[in-house]
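ugh ok so i messed up the first submission bc i forgot one of the chains. this is the corrected input, ALL of the components this time, i swear. 438 residues overall. if the numbers dont match what u have on ur side tell me asap before i send this to the collaborators (the ones from the other lab, u know who)
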Amino acid sequence: MKKVYGSASDALDGLLFDGMFIASGGFGLCGIPELLLQAIKESGTKDLTFASNNAGVDDFGIGILLQTRQVRKMISSYVGENAEFMRQYLSGELELEFNPQGTLAERMRAGGCGIPGFYTKTGVGTQVAEGKEHKDFDGETYILERGIVADLAIVKAWKADDTGNLVFRKTARNFNPPAAMCGRVCVAEVEEIVPRGSLDPDMIHLPGIYVHRLIQGDHEKRIEQRTIREA
Amino acid sequence: MWDRNQMAARAAQELEDGMYVNLGIGIPTLVANYVGDKDITLQSENGMLGMGPFPTEAEIDPDLINAGKQTITELARTSYFDSAMSFGMIRGGKIAAAILGAMEVAENGDLANWMIPGKLVKGMGGAMDLVAGVGRVVVVMDHTNKHGDSKVLKECTLPLTGKGVVNRIITNLGVLDVVEGGLRIVECADGVTEDQLRAATEANIVD
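and heres the new structure output, hopefully the right one now
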């Protein structure tokens, strides 16, 4: 079992193809797989569909793949703060499927757990419910949402051991575990790979069964809204 | 008339000791400044319970942000979790209340706060999940738009965030509850008469 690769492009070798469906972890610019996104940009793979809560900003995160027109469709809950995204969407160059944030997270989790669909109250009576099956349970109306299974999941964690057990840090965990779970293949990038046995097994956030390939790298970890209080 | 901080202070009165609460972006964020001695745990839906204040320059951590993507800090009670669990607790009714902003509300409790067709396409983020799942939804908003038109309507004109989900509306002019048949005035803001509040409200007001 060799999961550790030397670079992001090595780790993606043989996994990328035009028209593929990729699930990505991250919330805003926090905990995004920035090295793998850069490698996907350099690969030139196109017509991509991304399930990702956000689309980054113009020059960071998934935004860099929008600049090169490699993305055909986004499945997201929030796309503000990205001018190029807005331009491509309003001009019809880019398809956008809005999912409520929790519905998107649960679609990923469910897909990874072998659950093809689930009922939720979220979005009932809104545009999100249009065309979806409605069903009443105990006097309340719910809509059917489908689980997501992606061709590839790309995620970012803080630490890993060489078997792919992952530990996240603070709110950088966000969509990374559910995204990892819904990938047929998952590639993770981490800040540090430690020897097996050095992570406390009780403190593993995502077991290595979900992680197929792994790289260690240096992360910029850009901040979107630097907000401070006076000391 | 109340200013932003006075609206936030009024909204803070909605919170009770021991509550787990989600605060939206904008004026709702200011509510945290007015909870006083009450023991309130703030949820940030990207995956955190026990949200602390903004950091000092030295405390800034790119791995620690709130749902508005602002840098924040943690507290002794803080826990972190993934977004699926975070919305599990929202959808599952574990969060007692959400205080959110709005573009429009209607007398039947409909809420619109996520898009203006053809003009503004940002997305609903977690708002649809919150209003569908939490125990109580309190909206904090200006009563009218910049043209003086009421934002408290008989029916929303914008795409909905949730249908029949709002419990209480706090505006710069006062406080209204969503009840059978329309809205009921709970109180008027300082210096605002009931007649002024009624005149600024398109929605049906019941006694």
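quick check: Chain B touches chain A through 52 residues (CB under 8 Å). that seems consistent at least. The mean pLDDT of chain B is 96.
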